[in-house]
């Protein structure tokens, strides 16, 4: 059913994502080396690296999830190839604009660009509009892509069925595949947060061009920023989950998973919780009404319920005492789910306001989100990449380096993350280019983290060389 | 506090890792004769319920201890105005005039007296984080332009406390700091 | 449509506009001075001719102190009228005293009686009109600096309201004519009700998220909150719109 064009563009996505990921890991290692006093970069370079690293990482893993979902969606509905192409072109342009603003223009306000920092120019004057332009360009591309996918979905499934509402009744007459349900829920979330980004950019530009007559409200801007930033980071994880629901049983040679009433309920609830959970980024802004803070804590807890209660448990049950054909694909899925659970634990600890009081903006924060990205979401996408790359090899494929890749990923990942967690417990601040003398452990931890991150990088490189050949074959095969 | 959090986290992590390993091994061991579930998405409601209850208890225990309610029914013995700006903190007993901001060179508190920090920013968002003499983060709030955040605290341990900025505010964020003494 | 408008607006402004930078307006910090300092225990003479100290007054009930002079041709009258009007709608009227104190040495007891009559507050038990012989120290302790303008025979000054709790500490100050929300914050402050945060006066901001409503002690959603909900609302409409459209084209 899937077209050759889709196959080609998906392999191109995979190659772009992996190349950018490797560059991005190198940026991360450079930052940790600088903090570890092994190399010496100026703070501006460090913060430019940090800004680039953050936004690029969000961008590539978001599109990786989207590309995977788009590819698998073709099994159910016909998707638009041109929307896919538009998204790719705009993503690439956006990334180039971002890199030129941070490396030529020295823009370094962080990828969360907290108002009004981007308007306090400490870099080339054009870099601020260029940075916002890059977000705009990517945002428009992604919005087009998600709206197009959603339209195709809704053509086949009426809204209530796409949201699996018929499963709330006993013995539903029709089935909604879990993949469709999660994709639908995630697409709505993505569209909402991208619209939030549009609004945020509009407010920024209104102030930027108003000659100082219009000043934004810092609290509102912070709310909007995290409404966009938190939600997009969370939704990209759900894209990975959609892929798991579809592929995990299949790759293991098991029957397809079927939606049940509480799976439907849990994911529908997620739609609401995900949009209010971002309040936890503003716990330390006492100006935010206390009611919102409490909503933030409860919504953040709740957001973990469908995830932990349904997905993780289902994966465990699906594996327990069950004969499964293990391959790199489902091993990556399985380890990814474990990493996601552990990162989630770190997150639940941090979204508790009393803990946040002493953990907010320490290294605990990068610790937990790197856990469910580097050892969670990234592995979901890598699993898809691997599965995709062996679809077109003809006979049965035996991966040579499975054990090596997984061992290196785990050793590198755990060591790298542990340095963050210990740093968080040591109250070491995040986003510091160099550490003050108060934290004697900070520099050695950073240097150690750089070492472990290098091990992680080696695993990714082996993985890359393994599958890039196959992806290039797909890309350049005669159509 | 932080190390007990880390300990809790590590214990939970070890438990999860054990469960995953155990489940994985069980799959390896069962061989091809095993049956497995035909649809793992079925009948796990009780698990959701337990999680719900556990998190509910956790929330109801921790929320009343949130920093917004700290020492709310007492009158502070000292008020310190804090104006954060790129890349320094101004601390003063007197209100700080944004046109002509000036801070005091040294601020001292008595141990166990209630201190209220009235924190705001003159430019971008900053963090106002207090580290105790052994460099452990004990309390923080954000400094937001246009708003005043009131942080109340009683310092028990005498010594030199460091204030660091915990919200990225530009190229010299990492050197933005101040301090005060508790006697 | 709306989306397209925003998009073209941003695109247009990014690529064809000329750059100018909004400066963050410094908020007024004078209100922040003297907070939690003890107010000077001044001797005052009431309209009824009773001599007492300020502490006798605030020890009984917290005090809202308004500093005015009767010959004022400017802000004093509108200020007192507004204060009176705003307080009429407060449910909490017995919990504090309003002290209207003259800072002009020329003001006599008779002047203050006249003022109270003019305001229709002569027999109001909550309002207390008084003069003092020791205004300098009082002004100093609350951070009030009226400047004498001999050309106009007037004091150059701002409307000034101070909250003082039962222990005699200054809990909050309001400079200028302010709305009743802010008056409400001042009243809660004299009752030692802690609010973890507040906005600084700044009229430049259009979209603030929350406006504190002192009557309920809660934050009322402002225009900004609507902005927060806007993306969700548009997304919902978009989903419903697409869903409606595709179904109807197919049938």
Brief digest:
Helices cover 72% and strands 0% of the residues of chain A. Chain A has helices spanning 4-35, 43-73, 81-104, 127-156, 159-162, 178-208, 218-251, 261-276, 290-319, 328-350, 353-359, 364-389, 402-425, 442-476. The mean pLDDT of chain A is 91.
Secondary-structure topology with pairs:
The complex is a heterotrimer of chains A (479), B (183) and C (251).
Chain A: H1 4-35, H2 43-73, H3 81-104, H4 127-156, H5 159-162, H6 178-208, H7 218-251, H8 261-276, H9 290-319, H10 328-350, H11 353-359, H12 364-389, H13 402-425, H14 442-476
Helix pairs in contact in A: 1-2, 1-3, 1-14, 2-3, 2-4, 2-7, 2-12, 3-4, 4-6, 6-7, 6-8, 7-12, 8-9, 9-10, 10-12, 12-13, 12-14, 13-14
Chain B: H1 2-30, H2 45-62, E1 78-85, E2 88-92, E3 108-109, E4 114-121, E5 126-131, E6 137-143, E7 147-154, E8 159-164, E9 177-182
Parallel strand pairs in B: 1-4, 3-9
Antiparallel strand pairs in B: 1-2, 4-7, 5-6, 5-8, 8-9
Chain C: H1 2-16, E1 43-46, E2 51-53, H2 54-60, E3 63-68, H3 76-88, E4 97-102, H4 109-118, E5 127-132, H5 135-142, E6 147-149, E7 154-156, E8 160-164, E9 170-175, H6 180-190, E10 197-199, E11 210-213, E12 218-221, H7 223-250
Parallel strand pairs in C: 3-4, 4-5
Antiparallel strand pairs in C: 1-2, 1-5, 3-8, 6-7, 8-9, 11-12
